[in-house]
């Protein structure tokens, strides 16, 4: 047998953890999957988890916790008020992000609900970078308008721009100058920008956005659920940061923000939980009223003490280069293998997921028939792999015209859970997509809507297959 020799400096990359427990997953037949997806009304959210072989629906709350996190859970303090676990979490959040005021919530959308209940009112305009579904939903539910100010390069999936999550400062200035300060409660910066492919925001852009905000006297709030992945890309892509630690980069990033919402289910490395962190005592006090109304007492919010302990450890673990390198290299592995087969992706590959450009993948499916959802269903039937549509269904209808909003790019997102799957699983996904890509021109029809909710419809929508 021949072996490839290499010097010690050329040893291949390997994860710096070992697997301690496994869970069986069921490998179904194509006939079973066809039946199940029909029964689910072609909504992949309606599938049971045991009907899915590899689940890339989301990276939210689906990761594996470390032994240190599990150990921390055993000493969680479940006191209703003044929990020691709250103070542990508060100290970690303050140390990492630099905010003095912290309110736990049960997840990120709960943090948005509380904060936006204070800040957003009817007729407001909230500029930002390609809002994700719940963020836009919470703004529009309050009769506000989310205004996308993302750079134009982000919508061309073939361009290798290193920071496609950046806010276009000219677009931002236009919005800020067009409306009165009293109708712009905040600027929201999502790091990384999920809707556009897990794309990062540069430190320079964060700095300049803060300058614009200060000019007009408006707060900057970060949607921070993948903040550590954003810091990794700043370290590896932005001039001047290669020798700066992840912790130092994070601290500078958040020095340009007035507050943050956080889903701990992503870069908190936990299965449930989140928080709001703020600089202003007065805003903290106002949010506290809504925390008590919607979530729980201020020192536990929507979380148990054990989960606060686990998130505190997770925030420490996620802000190390070693963890981030493992995480992001697996996502890159999936993306690069897909590229080898010519499958069109959002480039560069993001931090938490690979985003397939569904319109380029399925050129014969009309946009009115939900292209990315069509590809998602094809992938599930082909191989039992579940992704999620980030396209017209997720974009919802325009609140005024009630017409479909057609985003510039239709994505099928393959979100990789943290520390869950091996690269063999990723290779399985690649081959499944390769098979579909070879017959892509035979796929000419998608779906029509049978039933939908008035907001955030993609979670519960019912579809029927078009065949004519």
UniProtKB/TrEMBL annotation:
Cofactors named for this entry: pyridoxal 5'-phosphate
UniProt-listed Gene3D superfamilies: Aspartate Aminotransferase, domain 1 (3.90.1150.10), Type I PLP-dependent aspartate aminotransferase-like (Major domain) (3.40.640.10)
GO molecular function, one term: lyase activity
Keyword Lyase: yes
A Pfam family the protein falls into: Beta_elim_lyase
Keyword Lyase: yes
Protein name (database record): Probable beta-eliminating lyase
Origin species: Limulus polyphemus
């Amino acid at each position: 047998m021949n072996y490839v020799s290499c010097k010690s400096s050329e040893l291949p990359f390997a994860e710096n953890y070992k697997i301690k427990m496994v869970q069986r997953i069921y490998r179904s037949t194509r006939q079973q999957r066809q039946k199940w997806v029909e029964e689910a009304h072609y909504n992949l959210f309606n599938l049971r988890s045991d009907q899915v072989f590899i689940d890339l629906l989301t990276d939210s709350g689906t990761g594996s916790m470390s032994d240190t996190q599990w150990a921390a859970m055993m000493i969680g303090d479940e006191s209703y008020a003044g929990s020691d676990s709250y103070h542990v979490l508060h100290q970690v959040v303050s140390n990492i992000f630099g905010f003095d005021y912290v309110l736990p919530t049960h997840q990120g959308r709960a943090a948005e609900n509380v904060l936006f209940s204070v800040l957003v009112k009817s007729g407001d305009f909230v500029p930002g970078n390609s809002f994700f579904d719940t963020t836009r939903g919470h703004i529009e539910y309050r009769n506000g308008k989310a205004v996308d100010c993302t750079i134009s390069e982000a919508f061309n999936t073939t361009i290798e721009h290193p920071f496609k999550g950046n806010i276009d400062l000219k677009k931002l200035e236009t919005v800020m100058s067009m409306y009165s300060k009293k109708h712009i409660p905040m600027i929201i910066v999502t790091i990384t920008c999920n809707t556009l492919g897990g794309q990062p925001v540069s430190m320079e852009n964060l700095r300049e956005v803060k300058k614009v905000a200060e000019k007009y006297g408006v707060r900057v709030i970060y949607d921070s659920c993948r903040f550590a992945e954003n810091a990794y890309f700043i370290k590896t892509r932005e001039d001047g940061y290669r020798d700066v630690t992840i912790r130092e980069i994070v601290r500078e990033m958040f020095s340009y923000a007035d507050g943050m919402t956080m889903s701990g289910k992503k870069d908190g490395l936990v299965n449930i939980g989140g928080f709001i962190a703020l600089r202003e005592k007065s805003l903290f006090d106002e949010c506290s009223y809504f925390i008590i109304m919607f979530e729980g007492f201020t020192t536990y919010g929507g979380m148990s003490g054990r989960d606060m302990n686990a998130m505190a450890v997770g925030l420490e673990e996620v802000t190390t280069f070693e963890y981030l390198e493992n995480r992001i290299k697996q996502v890159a592995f999936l993306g690069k293998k897909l590229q080898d087969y010519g499958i069109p992706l959002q480039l560069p590959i993001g931090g938490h997921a690979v985003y397939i450009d569904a319109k380029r993948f399925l050129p014969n499916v009309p946009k009115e028939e939900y292209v990315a959802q069509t590809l998602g269903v094809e992938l599930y039937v082909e191989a039992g792999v579940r992704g999620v549509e980030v396209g017209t269904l997720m974009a919802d209808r325009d609140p005024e015209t009630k017409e479909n909003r057609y985003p510039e790019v239709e994505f099928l997102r393959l979100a990789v859970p943290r520390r869950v799957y091996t690269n063999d699983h990723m290779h399985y996904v690649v081959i499944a997509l390769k098979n579909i890509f070879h017959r892509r021109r035979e796929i000419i029809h998608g779906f029509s809507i049978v039933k939908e909710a008035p907001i955030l419809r993609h979670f519960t929508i019912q579809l029927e297959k078009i065949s004519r």
